[in-house]
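Field guide to reading this record: the first block holds the primary sequence, the second block holds the structure written as discrete tokens, and the final block holds curator observations. Each block starts with its own label. This record concerns Potassium binding protein Kbp, catalogued under organism Aquaticitalea lipolytica.

BLOCK 1 — SEQUENCE
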Amino acid sequence: MGLFSFIKDAGNKIFGINKKKAAAKEANTNAKANAAAELLKEEENAALKLEETINDLQLKVDGLKVKIKGEMATVKGIALDQTTKEKVVLVVGNNEGISVVDDQMTVENPEPEAQFHTVISGDTLGKIAKKYYGNPMKYPIIFEANQPMLTDPDKIYPGQVLRIPHLG
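BLOCK 2 — STRUCTURE
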């Protein structure tokens, strides 16, 4: 007798041994591929909806392209100005399922960058204005800086990110 070497996976193919196991493995692979294809389609549809929303809000970005992969969104294009760029980032980032926005946009007309504030429970635009500007009565500046995403100064929610523009 002696030791004989075999090609490990050749038996299944040649003699049909473990066909059920191979079929199950193939079905699992197909299910994973189908799930991956479905996820990709959902991400593409979500990206298209975000692009449509940005256009509906009349935020001017030439060559706008949004791509979503998992929890990350990438935004490309040429924004009219810094304000538009920041608003686009907020439109994309303030969506369920997006935890990171990769801003790859450029700006036609540069201007000072705004700060960003994440709303916490109990925040009001007045409290936020007092924190950043020292005066709660300057809340309309923050409200205007976040239009058209904000439609009412009293309708902000925890976790939402707001633009706090630089006062020049």
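BLOCK 3 — OBSERVATIONS
Helices lie at 10-15, 19-56, 82-93, 125-133, 139-145.
The domain at 113-168 is CATH 3.10.350.10 (Membrane-bound Lytic Murein Transglycosylase D; Chain A).
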